[in-house]
Design brief:
The protein has no helices and eight strands. By secondary structure, it is mostly beta strands.
Length: 91
């Protein structure tokens, strides 16, 4: 969970990988006191062992948190990884 000031326009920059024989997904959500909105999603199947580069645009005009959530099924082996999250404010 990452907190941001109201009215800031940010980019999350991160490499990620999803690998295995199961359904897997990584979602990025913005939450406020009122609601939660998904702003980005990646996956739903094996993406191989290659790392992908994500550039995710985020903005909210009220206090908000950015939540990164990974989901995999428990029936099959696999993994997802997120590395070196960098948050940059657009000026």
């Amino acid at each position: 969970i990452v907190e941001h000031r109201p009215g800031t326009h940010n980019f999350l920059v991160t490499p990620l990988v999803i690998h295995g024989n199961q359904v897997a997904r990584v979602d990025v959500n913005i939450t406020t006191a009122r609601d939660t909105n998904m702003i980005w999603s990646f996956g739903t199947q094996d993406q191989g062992e290659s790392w992908y580069f994500a550039l995710i645009d985020s903005y909210a005009d009220v206090n908000h948190n950015i939540i990164i959530k990974g989901t995999i099924t428990a029936q099959m082996p696999g993994y997802y990884a997120i590395d070196d999250i960098d948050i940059r404010e657009l000026l």
